[in-house]
Design brief:
Radius of gyration: 34 Å
Shape: elongated
Order of helices and strands: HHHHHHHHHHEHEEHEE
Length: 403
């Protein structure tokens, strides 16, 4: 099993490949997919088409009908398709909706009741493109006009059409609000991520200032003192230089520890990232939401977090799995208490290479867990691949101790 070593965050890459709600298409393929999403809803146009090909009208009326139907369909697709990205201005939307309404009335009155379904698209356009304050009165107005035209042309099932036109129009207002909420949430998430990054930068700056401020001030002071002592008291100056070396070494150790702390992954964050990554990859995920990490040393937690990151990377990128289960349990063994992480999927194991020796990812994981006093087991399971990582827990006597 070859486990990748980079950070598994396929959610963002996968989101780039998916259609984004309420945003314009970024390429020709995405534009085509959005257009295909709209086309199936043109089913109500089958009645006007059947009416035109049935031969019930004169040649001139049939030609005019085809022209009117093409104009209606083109206006509707232009209005709704453009609204899925960079929408028209309010005035242009109003004029296009008015054109749809006029075409629907004229075509129904001149060609008969089979064309009454055009009002469904007028209602959809009112709900999908107009602001709520306008949609709330244009949809009932469209429905009322449809009832009058239906009675004039003798269309059957007018009350069924009444409910259909009314409900479809207001349903589209709900879809419009959902799209707007999705866009707002996406912007809010980006803002939160930026604020979190800024906060981390500020925290790192504060920590480095606290760590280095005192040490650098002390080094500066002792350097000046050594310089003054050097001509008359070289032995004392040498002692000051030795102190400078000791302080600088300690400062270097402190900085390394601080940076290591920032780079150390946390199990809570990796579990949340695993849930997002698996969901984005269309893998049914069963991940514990609030694990009990009481008494887990930082080194052990970090080792498990790395193991989880590597395992989820393999599931998402190599296994072809459709389901993944993550378990985190405490076990009492002869060697003491352990925290066990189990990641099992129903995939092929990707480039696991069972029988060919462990991959670099597994070897690195095993070494990392070994340093924390843990163990790693990985191999084929009954229905896929299974990775188990164990790390020792702090004994009750150690929990809360000064060490």
């Amino acid at each position: 099993m070859s486990v990748m070593t980079e950070d598994p965050r396929p959610g963002e890459a996968r989101a780039d490949r998916l259609m984004r709600m309420g945003e314009p298409p970024r390429n020709g393929g995405e534009a085509l997919r959005k257009l295909v999403w709209i086309l199936p809803w043109l089913i109500f146009l089958s009645y006007p088409v059947h009416d035109l090909v049935s031969g019930a009208h004169t040649a001139a009326a049939t030609a005019a009908g085809w022209a009117g139907l093409a104009a209606f369909t083109g206006t509707y697709l232009t209005l709704v398709y453009r609204n899925m990205g960079r929408s028209f201005s309010g005035a242009v939307v109003g004029w296009l909706v008015a054109v749809l309404g006029v075409l629907a009335v004229v075509l129904c009155l001149t060609l008969g009741s089979p064309w009454i379904g055009l009002f469904v698209y007028v209602s959809v356009a009112c709900g999908a493109t107009n602001p709520l304050r306008i949609a709330y009165w244009t949809i009932p107005l469209t429905t009322a006009v449809m009832l009058l035209v239906a009675r004039h042309t003798g269309a059957e099932g007018e009350w069924t059409l009444f409910l259909l036109v009314m409900l479809v129009g207001f349903a589209m207002t709900g879809v419009r609000q959902l799209v707007r909420t999705t866009i707002d949430l996406r912007k809010a998430r980006a803002t939160v991520a930026q604020l979190a990054a800024n906060e981390e930068r500020l925290r790192l700056a504060r920590d480095l200032h606290d760590l280095l401020g005192h040490s650098l001030s002390l080094i500066t002071l002792k350097s000046e003192l050594a310089g003054r002592m050097l001509p008359d008291h070289p032995d004392k100056a040498a002692q000051q230089v030795a102190d400078i070396e000791q302080v600088s070494r300690q400062a270097l150790v402190d900085v390394r520890e601080a940076v290591t702390g920032y780079r150390r992954p946390r199990l809570h964050g990796e579990l949340a990232g695993a849930q997002v990554a698996l969901t984005a990859a269309d893998v049914t995920a069963d991940v514990p939401a609030e694990p009990d990490l009481h008494g887990v040393p930082e080194e052990s937690e970090s080792a498990l977090a790395w193991a989880l990151r590597e395992a989820i990377t393999n599931v998402v990128r190599h296994s072809g799995a459709t389901r993944c289960t993550v378990d985190l349990v405490r076990r009492q063994t002869l060697d003491g208490p352990f925290l066990e992480l189990c990641v099992e999927d129903n995939g092929s194991g990707g480039s696991a290479g069972v029988g060919k020796g462990p991959g670099n990812g597994l070897t690195g994981l095993a070494e990392r867990l070994e340093k924390a006093g843990g163990q790693l087991e990985a191999g084929r399971a009954e229905r896929g691949f299974r990775l188990v990582a164990r790390v020792p827990l702090a004994s009750p006597a150690d929990v809360g101790s000064p060490a």
